[in-house]
Design goal:
186 residues; alpha/beta; Rossmann fold; 5-stranded parallel β-sheet; 7 helices; binds guanosine-5'-monophosphate
Length: 186
């Protein structure tokens, strides 16, 4: 089973994904490939696999990527090999944007997909982005805020929409959703 978490940068996807993987024995995650520069809190091979633009384009040409998108001028994509290997034995929890979700829902016909959109009010989002420990530039904050309306416009793609105003509550709700959905799977 694949659980997709979406929502604008700052909606809490990373923190929630980590908390779910820690709490649920049968859950795991896989890093996406990206051409963006690693940030202070990134761990190569864990948060992302960092590759050059040329390497990423070679992966596209070799059909090694299920879906990819360009955000803030960088490629981001999901490796076919990584996803197929893990989805056989685990509940894979992955942070993917709205375009990637739309693509994966069309492509992955043999894997059950549960989609969750994390919502956060725009003013709260701005505050979170400005206070991030990895210090985004004004330009980066602007790019992410501009993305807000677009991501919200795709909300109908999602099975569940959750307002993330309390981390503990949100993690518990999503854990419950995953447990119920896995029962339906069998
Ligand atoms: P960030 O650079 O802040 O870590 O991520 C930027 C955006 O890229 C986020 O909205 C995230 O959901 C998206 N993203 C991360 N991995 C993938 C992926 O594999 N595919 C797609 N389409 N988007 C991704």
């Amino acid at each position: 089973m694949l659980v997709i978490l979406s929502g604008v940068a700052g909606a809490g996807k990373d923190t929630i994904r980590k908390a779910l993987v820690e709490r649920m024995e049968d859950a795991t995650t896989i890093p996406s490939f990206t051409t963006r520069e690693p940030r202070a809190d990134d761990i190569p091979g864990v948060t992302y696999n960092f590759v050059s633009k040329e390497e990423f384009e070679k992966m596209i040409d070799n059909d090694e990527i299920y879906e990819y998108d360009i955000h803030h001028n960088n490629y981001y994509g999901t490796s076919k090999k990584f996803l197929n290997e893990k989805a056989k034995d685990y509940i894979v929890i992955k942070d993917i944007d709205v375009n990637g979700t739309e693509n994966l829902k069309n492509i992955l016909k043999d894997v059950k997909i549960v989609t969750v959109f994390l919502r956060v009010p725009k003013d709260e989002l701005q505050r979170r982005l400005e206070n991030r420990i990895d210090k985004l530039s004004h330009e980066e904050i602007k790019l992410r805020l501009n993305r807000f309306d677009y991501e919200e416009s795709k909300i109908d793609l999602y099975d569940y929409v959750i307002k993330n105003d309390n981390l503990e509550k949100t993690v518990s709700i999503i854990q419950e959703i995953i447990e119920q959905e896995s029962k339906l799977d069998t």
